[in-house]
# Entry
Amino acid sequence: MTEQFKLGIQPPIRESGDIAGSPGCTLEGPAGSVNLDQGVICALRHIHMTPADALRYGVRDKGTVRIRVQGDRELIFGDVRIRVDPSFALAMHIDTDEANAANLGNGAQGYIDGIQEDG
# Structure
């Protein structure tokens, strides 16, 4: 979300792939530029897992949970969407600002602190 201030846009917080009606932008790089009419979002925090993982943790696809991360800046992330698919590997995706708030790095572990919605 920090980038929105630098870019002057206000991306909606949505599930990955839900870009309808979102702002666009122009991406420029050494090989040229690409203009996007829409597609700028801040992805809703989520956890990818297999069906076996979902069964193990007692959650369902499209459910919502709270995740507790421990450490020197312990934090509970609410509104974490569960995404279940056989091709997924167990991983939680949050943005850089969220990771920085809890002082997290790649490979940090969290725990389901509660189920908010069953899905």
User: Anything to note?
Assistant: The first helix runs from residue 2 to 7. Residues 2-42 form one domain. The radius of gyration is 16 Å.
